[in-house]
Amino acid sequence: MSIYLRATLVVLIFIVVTGLIAIPFGNPNFIDRAIALELSFITLSVLLWRGYSKALYACIPIAILVIIGNSLAPPHVNLMMTFSKPLNAIVLIVGGYILQIALIYASLRAIINIRSNRMTTTT
After folding, report:
1. What is the pTM for the complete model shown?
2. Distance (Å, whole) CA 117 – CA 1
3. Which positions ≥6 away from 28 have C-beta within 8 Å?
4. Which of 13, 55, 106, 118 could disulfide-pair with 8, CB 3.0 to 4.6 Å?
């Protein structure tokens, strides 16, 4: 397993742990969507751990959707701007932005690494 694939797996695990911490503090009206998103990150983690590198391609759009969703939700923006609930704001910033950007970066690097290894092997 390449270093970038491992990095992607580690970031996914951190996202899952952060999500498990954040779900109890979230709005109960959105618990179904939060659990579905959490299950998608768990599924991606398992697929990558099992060696399915095609799961890397799903990491990028999901991370982008999380970032866009957090940016367009007025309660999230208000919470991050006011820090009215500091723990919630920190978890939202770390899990919703920092780790998602890290997931995009690690996934892209892993995809580039896999493609360059294929090109080197074939020639």
Report:
1. 0.90
2. 12
3. none
4. 106
